[in-house]
Structure formats: structure tokens, C-alpha cells
From TrEMBL:
PANTHER family: TRYPTOPHAN--TRNA LIGASE, MITOCHONDRIAL. This is Tryptophan--tRNA ligase. Belongs to the class-I aminoacyl-tRNA synthetase family. Its EC number is 6.1.1.2.
Length: 328
């Protein structure tokens, strides 16, 4: 690869990906693979930090996620797709970084405090969960990237990654560049019920959903709740569906929908039909690419094996430099 800039990002294999994942992060990844040397990995160790007691779904989730990625347009020839736990260097770097990362940084991490408070059905008192950001810093700094495409929710982790890099460079000499977060310009992607689209709210449209199921879901989807009949003028700016037109419909179509909604000539049922048509156009090529992998499961293993090897080659180089700097 002779691309000048390098980038890396990962996702935890927690379940099927939905439109929020696509428009929030994945779309960005797909674009980056053409312009940058890009490493994308399944963060299976990170999944264990909170789900260590029930790892039964991890294997399936990993494979499904790779299928979602390739469906979305990641091309294993254009970027490196790998599995974190197959590149053991990540564990070594995480251990080394933990030597000089103050426990107080980890304890005051806002994500850590928030999840400790909010998640009550799992134990999060384990050391692995506290050290989540150190492992994440290792994942990132390993590839010495200039930037990391992530969602906004990851900003505290990115800040800590930069602090860890700075501390490494201060203690042992310049080696690890401080990477910046590369946010996707805010794509509004509400769930079916108007809350944030999330697997735990059961309000998502998944990339692998069949159109028949999507039709059912969209039928019950909230629109402008103040609009009771077609003859009432609606307001696209408070409608839960309109943000999807912004993502999936042409500017001309959006203007027409806005006019029809506010002028009470286009009803929500017909508006949903337009959405379904455009969503189908969008999802069809994704699902076609995905079905190639469904029909050939060995290809998923091949993609990962190839990516693991390429990631290891790069990680090996970084680790040689890190060990040298740290006197090992
Ligand atoms: N914390 C990320 C998430 O929950 C996953 C992740 C782990 C990650 N390591 C990373 C993302 C490194 C970017 C870079 O989605």
C-alpha cells in the first residue's frame, strides 16, 4: 500500500449492525479505504470486558459483523480487516501502556463512570473493564495513525489515547503520534420510536433485515406525532422519519416531500412508501454483497486470516520500536 495517511478503527462484536452504525461510522470507513492505509478490526477482547460471563455469542457475532462490513462496502483488498484477539501484539502493548497509565485517569473516565451507574444487569467491577481505554489506546497507537474514524461517544477514549501517547513520548522519547478523532458530519438517525437507534432499545433497522420485516417495522414508525390525519399540515422538522429522507432521498425528492407534508397533500403512509422504496434501493447492493459471504462461509475466515497476517506484520514493527524505547 502506498497511501500516505494511515488510519485504524474497531467495533465490538455485540450484534447485527443497524442504519445508525452505517451512517454514523461505517460509511466513513468505506470512504477512507480508498484514500488511506486503513486497518479495521473486530474488537472481540473489548466485547469480553463487559460480557465475560457469557461469551456464547461472540463467535457468531464476529462473523456476522465481518459480513455486515463487506456488505456495506469494505473491500478486503483495499483495507485490512482483522480480529483483535488474533494479533497478540495488542495485548503486549496494552500491558506496556498500563505500566505508566495512572489509575486515576481510568477511574475518572466519563464513559466508565456512566456505564458503571447505568448498566445494572452485568458486573462491571472487573479490572478488564477499568482498563478498557488502555487496550483501546494500544489498538490505536499500534498503527501510529493520524486519525481514527469513530462516533462521538468515543471522544473521551480518544482523549485518553492522546494522553497515553504523550506520556509515552515524554518518558521514552518520540515514537507515537497523537491521533485525532475523525467524526462523521452528524448524521441524524433516530430509532423507530424516536429514541437513539440502539440494539438494547429494540428500535433498529438492521443492514441484514429482510424488506418484509422492514415494512412491518416502518408501519409502526413514529412520524410527526401532532399530525393525526393527512389533512393536517405536518412538520418534517419534528418528524422521526424525515431524517431518513435526508439520508436516502434525492434533494429534489426531499423538497417535494417537505412541500407535500407541510401543505397536507402527502400523507405519512405515502411518505413511508417513498422511504421504503429508497431504503430498498440502498440496501439491495449491500445485501447482495453480504449474501455472497452467506453462501461461502469459508470466505469470511479467509478474509480474516489475510487481514490478521497483514495487521501482525505492521504491529510487529511497532512493537520492536516500543520494546527498544522501553528498555526491553
Ligand atoms: N470502543 C469502541 C466502541 O465501543 C471499539 C474500539 C475498541 C475501538 N478499540 C478501538 C474503536 C480502537 C476505535 C479504535 O465502539
Amino acid at each position: 500500500m502506498s497511501k500516505e495517511l494511515r488510519t485504524v478503527s474497531g467495533m465490538r462484536p455485540t450484534g447485527p449492525l443497524h442504519l445508525g452504525h452505517y451512517f454514523g461510522v461505517l460509511k466513513n470507513w468505506v470512504e477512507l479505504q480508498y484514500t488511506e492505509e486503513a486497518y479495521f478490526f473486530v474488537a472481540d477482547w473489548h466485547a469480553l470486558t463487559s460480557d465475560y460471563a457469557d461469551p456464547s455469542k461472540i463467535r457468531t457475532n464476529i462473523r456476522e459483523m465481518v459480513k455486515d462490513w463487506v456488505g456495506a462496502g469494505l473491500d478486503p483488498e483495499k483495507c485490512v480487516i482483522f480480529r483483535q484477539s488474533e494479533v497478540k501484539e495488542h495485548a503486549e502493548l496494552s500491558l506496556l501502556l498500563s505500566m505508566f497509565t495512572p489509575v486515576s485517569w481510568l477511574e475518572r473516565n466519563p464513559t466508565y463512570k456512566e456505564q458503571q451507574q447505568q448498566i445494572s444487569n452485568k458486573d462491571l467491577g472487573n479490572a478488564g473493564f477499568l482498563c478498557y481505554p488502555v487496550l483501546m489506546a494500544a489498538d490505536i497507537l499500534m498503527y501510529r495513525p493520524h486519525g481514527v474514524p469513530v462516533g462521538e461517544d468515543q471522544l473521551p477514549h480518544m482523549e485518553m489515547t492522546r494522553e497515553i501517547a504523550r506520556r509515552f513520548n515524554y518518558l521514552y522519547g518520540e515514537l507515537l503520534p497523537e491521533p485525532k478523532a475523525m467524526l462523521t458530519p452528524a448524521a441524524k438517525c433516530p430509532g423507530l420510536d424516536g429514541r437513539k437507534m440502539s440494539k438494547s432499545y429494540n428500535n433498529g433497522i438492521f443492514l441484514s433485515d429482510r424488506m418484509a420485516d422492514i415494512q412491518e417495522k416502518v408501519r409502526g414508525m413514529f412520524t410527526d406525532q401532532a399530525r393525526l390525519r393527512k389533512s393536517d399540515p405536518g412538520n418534517p422538522d419534528v418528524c422521526n422519519l424525515f431524517p431518513y429522507h435526508v439520508l436516502l432521498s434525492s434533494p429534489e425528492e426531499q423538497a417535494e416531500i417537505r412541500k407535500g407534508c407541510t401543505g397536507a397533500t402527502l400523507g405519512c403512509v405515502d411518505c413511508k412508501k417513498i422511504f421504503l422504496k429508497n431504503l430498498e434501493t440502498f440496501l439491495t447492493p449491500l445485501q447482495e454483497r453480504r449474501s455472497v459471504l452467506d453462501a461461502n462461509p469459508a470466505r469470511v475466515d479467509e478474509i480474516l486470516a489475510h487481514g490478521n497476517e497483514r495487521a501482525r506484520a505492521f504491529a510487529g514493527q511497532t512493537m520492536a520500536l516500543v520494546r527498544e524505547k522501553m528498555g526491553l
